[in-house]
């Protein structure tokens, strides 16, 4: 079509119509870009502290947030939320992990133990009792993660799993302070109770030997 076919359809009118159409298309696209992209909920079944549980969770929910916000097990602490401090350490099928770095949906069917599942105020886990006896804490914020990690460390040594401090990777790891310090290096205590933590772990390891 040209201006001779439709004299009333001028170049100016064409530009105005094009601009209007572009704006009409851009508006819903802009709204879609600004709207939060919600992830569909997913069913997750796992065992927490001996109890079978089933949750409907956003697939982006970390295991840490599932424990704290959905199950109200607030013993597990959110420290750095980047896997650097170890305050969120829990046991999954007997092995320690940083729960802030793991999605809850990854643990369908797993067995999860938090500090609440290790012992009770009336019947403490030996590691909990040793931390109290040796003053292995001050402010206490890192303590749940420290205790869960300490329990796992002794299991690792008993299973013969070497660490960077092990002189011979083919030999059974020694229960030394250097070995314990290396294995606990992922759990930060800002109060500096490290010597007392090692003393607590050494006592529990000696009692279990």
> Could you say which structural class the secondary elements and strand pairing correspond to?
alpha+beta
Main sheet specs: 5 strands, mixed
| Tally of separate helices | 7
Gyration radius over CA: 28 Å
Tell me the number of strands. Answer: 5
The CATH superfamily title of the largest domain: [2Fe-2S]-binding domain
* Succession of helices and strands: HEEHEEEHHHHH
- Domain count: the total is 2
Question: Could you list some keywords that capture this structure?
Answer:
Ubiquitin-like (UB roll); 2Fe-2S-bd; signal; 39% helix; DNA polymerase, domain 1; 2 domains; 7 helices; five-stranded mixed beta sheet; 209 residues; alpha+beta
């Amino acid at each position: 079509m040209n201006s001779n076919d439709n004299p009333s359809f001028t170049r100016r009118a064409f530009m105005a119509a094009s601009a209007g159409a572009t704006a009409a298309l851009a508006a819903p696209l802009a709204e879609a870009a600004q709207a939060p992209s919600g992830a569909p909920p997913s069913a997750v079944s796992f065992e927490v502290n001996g109890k079978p549980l089933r949750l409907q969770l956003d697939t982006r929910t970390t295991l840490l947030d599932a424990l704290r916000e959905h199950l109200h097990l607030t013993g597990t602490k959110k420290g750095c939320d980047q896997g650097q401090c170890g305050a969120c350490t829990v046991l999954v099928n007997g092995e320690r992990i940083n729960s802030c770095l793991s999605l809850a949906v990854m643990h369908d069917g797993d067995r999860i133990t938090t500090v609440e599942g290790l012992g009770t105020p009336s019947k403490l886990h030996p590691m909990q009792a040793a931390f109290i006896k040796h003053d292995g804490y001050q402010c206490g914020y890192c303590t749940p993660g420290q205790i869960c990690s300490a329990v796992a460390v002794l299991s690792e040594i008993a299973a013969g799993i070497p660490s960077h401090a092990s002189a011979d990777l083919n030999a059974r790891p020694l229960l030394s302070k250097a070995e314990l310090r290396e294995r606990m290096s992922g759990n930060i205590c800002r109060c500096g109770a490290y010597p007392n933590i090692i003393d607590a772990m050494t006592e529990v390891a000696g009692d279990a030997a």
